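Lecture 7 notes: from sequence to structure.
We start with the chain below.
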Amino acid sequence: MTMLVDWNKCVRRVVLTVFLSFLTFAQTFCVRALGSDKANERWTRAPRSSFVNVVKETCKSVVSIQGEKQYEVGRLGESGSDSQFDVYNGMGTGVVIDERGYIVTNYHVVNGLLKLEVVTSDGDRYRDVELIRNDVDTDLAVLKIKPKRPLQKILMGRSKRVELAEEVYAIGNPFGYHCSISRGIVSSIDRPLEVNDRLSYDNVIQTDAAINPGNSGGPLINVDGEMIGLNAAMREDAEGIAFAIPVDLVCDVVERMLRQSTAKMTHHGLKFRIVDSDDPDYPKDGDGYDCLIVDSVDAKSPAAAAGVKPGDVLISSNGYKMRNSLDFTCSLIGMGLSDVAELEYERDGTEKTTSIAFSGLTRAKGRDFELADASEKKKRYASARTVDSVAEEAADSDADEETPVVAASIPPAKPKKNRAEETVWKVFGVEVKTVNSREYREDYPNLQAVAIGDFNFAPGGGVMITNTSGKGLFNEGDVGLQEGDLIFGFGVGSKKEGQLSVASLDNLYYIAQHVDEFSSRDGGKARVYLIRSGKPYFLEINLIP
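Predicted C-alpha cells for the same chain:
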C-alpha cells in the first residue's frame, strides 16, 4: 500500500519547531542578562510573620534589672562569730506598666539587691531607681525610674481567657542575655504552687516555655503580644516546668500598691469591671479590646458630683486610654485634692466628657468656715463630740450657709508642755510647733475647708513638724513625714467619729497617749492628714510597730 507524503505540512512543522526554539533561546538569554545586571541585589524575602513584629514591640516594654547581692560564705575567728561575706551579680527582668517609668517585677528580684540598675530596651541605664512599694504575699514590687523619654508600656491581657495548650512566649534576661525569647504552651491553669514556707499561690499558670535565672519578673505573652502572666519560678529538679503569676492578679495588686503610694489623695468613688467583646454590655462600636465599665458610683463622691453613672464606658482619663483599673489609677499618679481629672466616657452610644474634682467640696457662702475665735474653740474642746454633733452646731449658727462637716475634736490633755513634747518625740519621732488659727488662715487661705474622701475638715490650725528622729510611728516603713509638714487631722477606722482634728501640740499628745487603744481598731492602721508644699495629703501609718 503506497502512502502519500504531504510535503507542505512537513515544511510547516519544521518552520514552527525552529521558531519555538529561537524564542526559548531568546528568553533564556534575556533572563540571564537581567540577572547579571542585578547581581548585587538581595533576593526578595517572603513577608515576616506578624508575630515577629509583635515580639519586637513587646521587647520595648521589657527591662533588665541588675545589681549585687551579698551572701554569707563562712565565719572567721576562733569562736566563729565573725561572718565572712561574698558578693555575686543578681539579675532579673521587669515590665513597664506606665510610660513615666513605673515597672513591675518580682519582689525576690530586688530584695536585698545592692547598687540597683535598670537597663531599658534601647540600652539606657538608670541607677537612680526607687522602690515604690512591694507586696511580700504575692512576690510583687513596683519600681520607678526617671526615663529620658516616654517608655512603651506592656499590653495587658486577661488571664481569665487563657486556655490549656495555648501557645505562649516567655521574654526575659536569663543569665543576663537581654530580651531572650522562649516558646511553649500553657501546661496547666489555676495550678496551686507552694514556693516556700512564706510564699504560695492558688492559681498560677504552668508553662513549658524555658525559664531560667534572670527570667523572673518578665512577661509571659500570648500570640497577640498581650501579657497573660509574670514569670516567677521554675522547678529546679525538672525540665519544662515553670510558673507565672496570672496577669489579673498582677494588675489588682499593682493597682492597689500604686493607689496607696502615689495616687492616695484621689478618692473618686468609682468601682469598675472589665468587659470583653463577648460580654453583652460591650459597646457596639468597640475596637475589639477590653473595655472599662463603671460598675458602681459611691453616693456623694466626687465622681457622683461629676455626673458619672453605672454603665458608663470609660474611654480615657487625663488623656490616657483606659483598658483596666490599673490604667485608671496610673492616670491619677501625682494628683492631689486640689487637682481635677478629665474623663472621657460613653453613655448610650454618645461620647461625653466631665471633670472630677477630688476635693468634692462646696465651700461656705460669704465666708470660710472655721473655728472663729479662741472662746468658740475652747467651748468645742470641752468634750469630745462626733462629727454630726459639731455639724449640727454649725448649721444652727448659720442655717442659710452650706457648710462642710467638721471632724470630731479631741479633748485636750493638761500636761506640762515639756512632758507633751517628750511623749510626742518618743511615740511619733517628731518635734512640732503649734500653728494657731490666725497663722493657718494667713498661710493657707485656700485650704480653710478640706475634703478627703467622705470626710470634710475645717482646720482650726495644726502642728508643723520642725524635726524628726528617724524613728517612731511617723518614720516607720515608707511613711516618711518630713520637716515642714503641717498635720491637721488623725483618722482611726472608717467612721466619722474616728476622724480627729489636730490643732495643737496638746491634741497630738492626746493621740500619743491613746495609741494602744487606737491600735486595736481597723487592724492597727491609721491616717495622718497633712499639708505639704501647699497641698493636702494623707499618709497611712501602722500603729503596731
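Points to note: The first helix runs from residue 7 to 37. The radius of gyration is 34 Å.
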